[in-house]
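[09:14] KT: can someone run the structure on this one? pasting the chain below
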Amino acid sequence: MRFLVCIKQVVDASKMEVDPATGRLKRNNANSIMNPLDLHALEAAFELRDQVGGTVSVITMGPPQAEAVLRQAASMGADELYLVTDRAFGGADTLATSYTLVHAIQTLKPFDVILCGQESIDSNTAQVGPEMAGMLGIPNVSHAIGNLSINGNVITVKRQMNDGAEVVEMKTPCLITTGKELNKPRYPSIKGLLAKDTAEIHRITSADIEADPARLGIKGSPTQVRKVRPVKPMKKENLKISGKTAEESAAILAEALHKIQVI
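[09:31] RB: done, structure tokens below
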């Protein structure tokens, strides 16, 4: 079977820096990592490959520096690597990103199962996976947390729900987004680490896909992030209430809470 994993290079939250002039995140290899939940999607693909055989392909959309996360995937055992990169794709929101990835995927051989991390730590929308499934016209399950297996063309998976969990079955081709509860990602092998720098990365540009230019990048994005800023830590202060009666103390506390807009 053919498995495809969509991954993303994101800014490490512990090393996040904001450009004060542009109000945008500083993105470079020094503070960029693979989106953590995508590691669980990768592990799920490897485990399914171990079950039934086949290949695991990995695709990411981003600037040339996003090659780094593809090579990390190669060190873990990925068979094929695809980088969707073009200036025309810059500034894409979740809708434009999903549209671009779908058209890039359609240039490749059909896949039986597509896996994505539940969400990325730099936007936390959890929209790209389900949007891709809708555009591809295939069933999808979000927030997979266990029981992942394949029998013929039927895949079984346990997913998290608001009030519990349920086990569902669906036919391939299909798409699954993964939660951190699903598995424990493997470490790269020594063989993989030695081979990752020479692994072939196939590039897909706007010239390679049959897409409407008006739906790519910032032009095709109905939502846009205007500015990003770090959250200032709250200043902690102790409040000593010294009313002579309980009623007086309550009034002092209520006034203090009103000033900080708690009530």
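[09:33] KT: thanks! The first helix runs from residue 36 to 52.
[09:34] RB: yep, looked fine to me
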